[in-house]
Structures are given as structure tokens and as C-alpha cells.
Amino acid sequence: MRLLTTVAALSCFLTQRRLESKCLVPDDLVLDEMSSWDRTAIGLVPTMGGLHQGHLSLMQRARQENSTVIVSIFVNPLQFSPNEDYNKYPRTLELDMQLCEQAGVDLIFAPTPEEMGVLQKSIQESKVTQVIPPSAMITGLCGGSRLGHFQGVATIVTKLFNLVQPDRAYFGQKDGQQLAIIRQLVADLNFPVEIVACPTLREASGLAFSSRNQYLSASEKQQAAVLYRGLQQAKAAFNAGVRNSEELIAAVRQEVAMVTNALVEYIELVEPNTLMSLVTVKEEGMLAIAARLGSTRLIDNILLSDRLPIIAIDGPAGAGKSTVARQVAAKLGLVYLDTGSMYRAVTWLVLQQGIAIDDECAIAELASSCEIQLTPSQDLQSPVQVWINGTNVTQVIRTVEVTSKVSAIAAQTAVRKALVKQQQSWGKRGGLVAEGRDIGTHVFPDAEVKIFLTASVTERARRRQEDFKKQNLPEVNLEQLERDIAERDWKDSTRKVSPLQKAADAIEIQTDGLSASEVTAKIVDYCQERLLQLSSL
């Protein structure tokens, strides 16, 4: 792990890292259309230091999903008002370095304000070019008392994105307003970075980890747990059917009032993406609170959602994901999201329109503008009917011609982004079972249930050999099949587009010796147990 403090050194590090990654391709490696040894994915974890277990969870997530992990440590003067705690904000670089080392971070970037081009002044006094988020997003919640705060955050985050050019950036859900604003920033300014939201980590009492917790005395720290208890009271009311904001807020306020030292600044119910106030929760709401104990200001929030569950099933080729996902959806009364059919539908449309497979610009245009619909069917052979631009393509997307071209189409980044966007749009209401390679890590990272379905190479080779026999295809010996599957696993886990990954919060099910119905039963049992557990949190 390295510590750098200048923009010049950071730029040099990034250039070298990308060159090194591209030079690691073995001479005898033959890559298919979707594979790449260009392992240059960069994960950025922006922080202000004073690192704790919450930050550690962000760094660990970034370590799992990227070849290079960079943590920025910068106490941003632009996001502090003149009367706030900039000068006494925790600066614990030595301890921070130890935690980063523990998480396997590659680089800490810890510049001075001068190096970042900002003087030690508030955003109101600064002469630096500012990035100003939509006024409706920065005037409520914390924006009401912290004038200029989110302009300062947006300005420095934009500078970090330009300097690092990360593939992914990691932020905690604890500051839900900041998370929503940064997502909007990325969308509005077309930054090619994925914003990864990570769950709030809490101490045993329920108090959310925060750098400012160290300001609290022992008694204040104990009392501060009342914020989360209040939010939990509201969630219990929500689970009992309460949807009105006044009643939900009252549930929080009643609990927090039991600690007289807790001075509430606000308790508000807002839509988590737009931050607009809600009168009632129709689909999803974020209940947020800010309060002071002594001189320490603390924030917390909780998401309230009527969304039906999403079940994400990932795993290597030949593990039986498609069959099992269909059966799980049928058993639980959920919709099977046939993501593979979406890529096949786009491939069919490309072929229909006579577009060359390597004309990525034309294919990007088509994928971004086409309309795909998936509708349930009673046909057990085709449980999902597939439509593209009004044409039913359920059968024609299974032809040899489409099958031979779909990998090349699916490998194109623009196609991937367009279809993931559609899948995530469908997922807003939940009620889905989806399978693939990165469904639980990328497409639906907030899925309530995540399964990683796998089997030994020997078992998957045996299954493939049986499939060949059933289809009256020429027999292939097991040793060759095992070599082919092992190579496919390696390529899937190292490919640049949608690599095979197990989500950190997924359970692994080894399917050797189990029938599809037995695997389905295991998943259904786990889903019911997991959903019951989540409802009680």
C-alpha cells in the first residue's frame, strides 16, 4: 500500500497501474469475445479520514469488486460552515493507514487543501469553481442548517472523479442525502462511474458508526442509540400498515423524547432518490433524523419500502441457475426475469436490421432505443414471452444464428448498460427472481436474497455430457469437458464485462448430487427464513 499526497504522484500511479495490468496477458492465452485480461477496474472510496468499521466495509466491498482500490482522505474545508468543526475534525492518518492496510487498499490519496486547489475557507468564501446540485435536493434535511455543505461536497467529489477516473465509487447509506445528491451529480454530468451504496454499519447498541462518535462521552454514546431505536419504532409501525408521514415521524419523536439530552434538528420522510417530502409512502421512503447530543451532531436514516423481494441467483456456467431460478419463481409466485433472453432479443434485432456485429456504435444506438417486454406465460417450455419493439421473438431468439452471435453482442459495454438499466427499472417494484454472473453484485445489489449456485467441475462436466446424450449430439469425453468448463470459469471470473462474482452477502449452495427440485427446495426454505428475518429488523 502506498500513501501519496500530490496530484502529480496520483496521476503517475494510475498510469503505471493501467500499463501494468495490460501487460499481464499470458502469451498463450486465447480470449473469447467477452473475455479480457485488462484488469484495470478502479474502485474509489472517498473519505474525510477518522476511519471506522463503516469505512472498512466500503473498502472491503471495493476490494472485492476492483483490481485497484484507492481511498481518498481529505478533510474538505468547502463543506464546513465558519461555525462548524473543521479545525477539530478527527485527523488520525496513522490509524487510518492501518485500517486501509487491513482492507487491502492499494493507495491512499491524502492531499492538502492547497494541493486540491481550495483554500481553508467555506464554500461561500471560496473563489473555486463550484458544482451546485439541484436546489430542491440541498435545501431540505441537512441542507437547511448546513448552508453550502452539499455544494462543497459536490465540488470536491467532482474533482476526485476527474483525478482518479474510477469505475466505481463507494458511499455509505448513512448519509442518504449525500448519496442521492452524488447519484444525481453522476447522472446529470454523465460521469462514467458506478455509484455503489453500502449498508449502514452499526455498533451493538444500534448507533451508526461515524467519525464524530469519538466526540461523544460514554454516557452520550449510550444515549445516542435512541436515534436508531426511534427509527425502528417507525419501521415497526410501517410493517403494521402505517403509511402516513405524520404517524411515522411521531413514532420516532416519541421514542427520542425519552432521552432529554437529544435535541432533534429534524425528522423527515422523503423519497430516497429525489429527496422530495412525502405525505404517504407509496413505494419507498427514507425516514431521516438529525439530532445533537451535547455539541455532537449525528444523523441516521432508515428505508421504508413496500417493494416485493428480489432474489438474485449467480454462479458459474452449468450450475443449473436457469432451471432453478424458474422453479423458485414459480414456487414463490414471483416473476422470472430472463435476462439472457434480453441479450438474445437485441442480437436478433441486430441481425434483422443487417447491422455488422462489430459496429458497436450502431448497436449502441439500437440497444439504447429499443423496447423489450417480458411477460409471464403458462407454457412450461417458455415461461416468459419475449417482445422487442412490439414483436414476439420468444421462439426466434433460440435459433442457431442468434445463439452463435449473442456472446459478441452481450460483450459490448453499451448493450450491457442499456439492458441493465431496463432490468433495474423493472426491479424497482421487486417481485423478481433473476440469475446470471453479477445479478447480486451489480444489477440488484440491494436484493433481499442472494444465492451463489455452484457445483464441482466434475459434476458440471457430467451434467453437460448427459445433456449431449439427450440431444443426440456427438459424445465428448469427460476430461475434455472438464478442461473446457475450467477454462470457461477462469474466463468468466476475469472478463471485463460482467465478471462472475459472489456477492459478499450471498450464501453459497453446492449442488453436487442434488436434483434441480432439491436445490429449489433449499433456496425456497432459505428465502422464507431470510425474508422473515428481514421483516423483524
From TrEMBL:
<feature type="binding site">
    <location>
        <begin position="209"/>
        <end position="212"/>
    </location>
    <ligand>
        <name>ATP</name>
    </ligand>
</feature>
<dbReference type="InterPro" id="IPR024894">
    <property type="entry name" value="Pantoate_ligase/cytidylate_kin"/>
</dbReference>
<comment type="pathway">
    <text>Cofactor biosynthesis; (R)-pantothenate biosynthesis; (R)-pantothenate from (R)-pantoate and beta-alanine: step 1/1.</text>
</comment>
<comment type="similarity">
    <text>In the C-terminal section; belongs to the cytidylate kinase family. Type 1 subfamily.</text>
</comment>
<feature type="binding site">
    <location>
        <position position="79"/>
    </location>
    <ligand>
        <name>beta-alanine</name>
    </ligand>
</feature>
<dbReference type="GO" id="GO:0006220">
    <property type="term" value="P:pyrimidine nucleotide metabolic process"/>
</dbReference>
<feature type="active site" description="Proton donor">
    <location>
        <position position="55"/>
    </location>
</feature>
<protein>
    <recommendedName>
        <fullName>Bifunctional pantoate ligase/cytidylate kinase</fullName>
        <ecNumber>6.3.2.1</ecNumber>
        <ecNumber>2.7.4.25</ecNumber>
    </recommendedName>
</protein>
<dbReference type="GO" id="GO:0036430">
    <property type="term" value="F:CMP kinase activity"/>
</dbReference>
<keyword id="KW-0511">Multifunctional enzyme</keyword>
<feature type="domain" description="Cytidylate kinase">
    <location>
        <begin position="311"/>
        <end position="528"/>
    </location>
</feature>
<dbReference type="InterPro" id="IPR003136">
    <property type="entry name" value="Cytidylate_kin"/>
</dbReference>
<dbReference type="Pfam" id="PF02569">
    <property type="entry name" value="Pantoate_ligase"/>
</dbReference>
<dbReference type="InterPro" id="IPR011994">
    <property type="entry name" value="Cytidylate_kinase_dom"/>
</dbReference>
<feature type="binding site">
    <location>
        <position position="201"/>
    </location>
    <ligand>
        <name>ATP</name>
    </ligand>
</feature>
<dbReference type="InterPro" id="IPR014729">
    <property type="entry name" value="Rossmann-like_a/b/a_fold"/>
</dbReference>
<keyword id="KW-0566">Pantothenate biosynthesis</keyword>
<keyword id="KW-0547">Nucleotide-binding</keyword>
<dbReference type="InterPro" id="IPR042176">
    <property type="entry name" value="Pantoate_ligase_C"/>
</dbReference>
<dbReference type="InterPro" id="IPR004821">
    <property type="entry name" value="Cyt_trans-like"/>
</dbReference>
<dbReference type="GO" id="GO:0015949">
    <property type="term" value="P:nucleobase-containing small molecule interconversion"/>
</dbReference>
<feature type="region of interest" description="Cytidylate kinase">
    <location>
        <begin position="303"/>
        <end position="537"/>
    </location>
</feature>
<dbReference type="GO" id="GO:0015940">
    <property type="term" value="P:pantothenate biosynthetic process"/>
</dbReference>
<keyword id="KW-0436">Ligase</keyword>
<dbReference type="GO" id="GO:0005829">
    <property type="term" value="C:cytosol"/>
</dbReference>
<dbReference type="GO" id="GO:0036431">
    <property type="term" value="F:dCMP kinase activity"/>
</dbReference>
<keyword id="KW-0418">Kinase</keyword>
<dbReference type="Pfam" id="PF02224">
    <property type="entry name" value="Cytidylate_kin"/>
</dbReference>
<feature type="binding site">
    <location>
        <position position="79"/>
    </location>
    <ligand>
        <name>(R)-pantoate</name>
    </ligand>
</feature>
<feature type="region of interest" description="Pantoate--beta-alanine ligase">
    <location>
        <begin position="1"/>
        <end position="302"/>
    </location>
</feature>
<dbReference type="GO" id="GO:0004592">
    <property type="term" value="F:pantoate-beta-alanine ligase activity"/>
</dbReference>
<comment type="function">
    <text>Catalyzes the transfer of a phosphate group from ATP to either CMP or dCMP to form CDP or dCDP and ADP, respectively.</text>
</comment>
<comment type="function">
    <text>Catalyzes the condensation of pantoate with beta-alanine in an ATP-dependent reaction via a pantoyl-adenylate intermediate.</text>
</comment>
<feature type="binding site">
    <location>
        <begin position="48"/>
        <end position="55"/>
    </location>
    <ligand>
        <name>ATP</name>
    </ligand>
</feature>
<dbReference type="InterPro" id="IPR027417">
    <property type="entry name" value="P-loop_NTPase"/>
</dbReference>
<keyword id="KW-0808">Transferase</keyword>
<comment type="similarity">
    <text>Belongs to the cytidylate kinase family. Type 1 subfamily.</text>
</comment>
<dbReference type="InterPro" id="IPR003721">
    <property type="entry name" value="Pantoate_ligase"/>
</dbReference>
<feature type="binding site">
    <location>
        <position position="178"/>
    </location>
    <ligand>
        <name>(R)-pantoate</name>
    </ligand>
</feature>
<keyword id="KW-0067">ATP-binding</keyword>
<keyword id="KW-0963">Cytoplasm</keyword>
<feature type="binding site">
    <location>
        <begin position="172"/>
        <end position="175"/>
    </location>
    <ligand>
        <name>ATP</name>
    </ligand>
</feature>
